[in-house]
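_Full entry_
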Amino acid sequence: MPPKASKRLLKIEEVVTVGDLAHRMGIKAADVIKKLIEMGMPSTLNQLLDADTAGILAQEYGFEVENVAPEMESLIDQEADKEEDLRPRPPVVTIMGHVDHGKTTLLDGIRESKVTETEAGGITQHIGAYEVEHNGRRLVILDTPGHEAFTAMRARGASVTDIVILVVGADDGVMPQTIEAIDHAKAAGVPIVVAVNKIDKPGAQPDRIRQQLSDRGLLPEEWGGTTLFANVSAKKRVGINELLELVLLQADVLELKSNPKKFARGTVLESRLEKGRGPVATVLVLDGTLKVGDAIVTGSHYGRVRALINYKGKRLEEAPPGTPVEIQGLTGLPDAGQKFAVLKDERTARQIALHRSEKERERVVSRPRMSLEDLHRKIDAGEVKDLNIVIKSDVQGSMEALQFSLGRLATEKVKVKVIHSGVGGISESDVMLASASSAVIIGFNVRPEAKGADLAEREGVDIRLYSIIYDVVDDVRKAMEGLLEPTLKEVVQGRAEVRNTFHISKIGTIAGCGVISGKITRNSNIRLLRDNVVVFDGKLSSLKRFKDDVREVLEGYECGLGIENYNDIQVGDQIEAYTIEKIAGTLV
């Protein structure tokens, strides 16, 4: 029996070690560890327990636990800003667009004309972001690799970008990545300023670009819309001043303000480990003023700011709002998109970091995700007002038919929003967009790329694959009404790549393949994929290793296979083997 305690209430601050809890209850640590093992939670003496776990354990010994630590967010300065303390802050700009439309050249043009003119020798310290001055006003331009990074940051809850510059080639027009960039910016609710680039090239048609973008909901201001357009030639450095003028005009509309007097807050842009310097993070200060010596926490890492270095490589004592800087002094490498906050002391920063570290696994598992199975329950609970959908199809016609059909399913309680649609396989970028927007991905006669499928599993994104439009509409309607029936789930066994083909009379085409993942079995269903689009669905007629018939071929081995009633196999095609499993309904 545990000793009788005069005070049966234990006060802890968010987390406590097993050893400390045992000591405060007057119980042998070995007995407490044994009890944890019995409860299915094997632990060590120094393992941290959160308040809930400590409470369950303490109840076993007749104690109650009170969590006296303030809520995590209340430890971070939450005081409301006074109107007189607010000052205008520079806009944060990201440049996006299709490959080869001149994003990098435009970045170089802005950098050369606006950044290096103030530097000796024109050397710029690359820190993932830099400041630009135009007519006495500052802008911050993020040097990101495009919409993948933009959306990856959004998936972590970071809303860094204020304005997107969309670069479109005047000689080329609206391309798939242009559409993708528009959808990503719209999903984030960020205004777009269009830079129509390459106007100096023969065959450039800026008005045609305006017409194409009008069809995508970006109606130019001169045509009665709200989107600002600038004609530029990044290569010849023409129109850059006019473009920056429009960005500042858009910033004026947004009325961006922050309070430089309070503790700094902002976002991590990138981080790396440097020999002799330790963890180095590039951060963007969005509110408050960051100073050398400040105690800082970001994610599960904390520390004291030992040095502040700006984009020119110059050491600063402090960084006001809208300043990108490199900082040293953190205990580890934070992820891009992680928010940071300055606290009153390092002890508080450490406390928050430890708590987040303990909660990290649980938080990843419980991130809000949307699946059709739990849609009706969430609608009834009032958690869902928009059902976001990403559509990928084999052809343009099917994609448009799906958009139209799904758009008509809206009810009083929930709107159906197609936030992105495109032709081709389901890519990592599609999955990241769905993850950031809590969307369901619908694939029509297409398959996820291997990396896309892995990412969807990790992020908990619901991918639905169909070959009949009616089934898509029917499933979404049933899910909204809570009538979705038990589904048949596909289990992908493996993929093989066609490396050669042989035509054998009276038998047909035999594909020489290498198994690139999983295994191919003789009895499984197979799909022939060309650029991740389904070309044929059926069964194998033969599966051989050398001259022998085999039941299965594993990853890393080669084989010859034939497909029943199908001969149009080409080098580079992929063959996906799968089985069908019946999954019981999971609706509540």
Summary: The longest helix spans residues 346-365. The chain is about 30% helix and 35% strand.
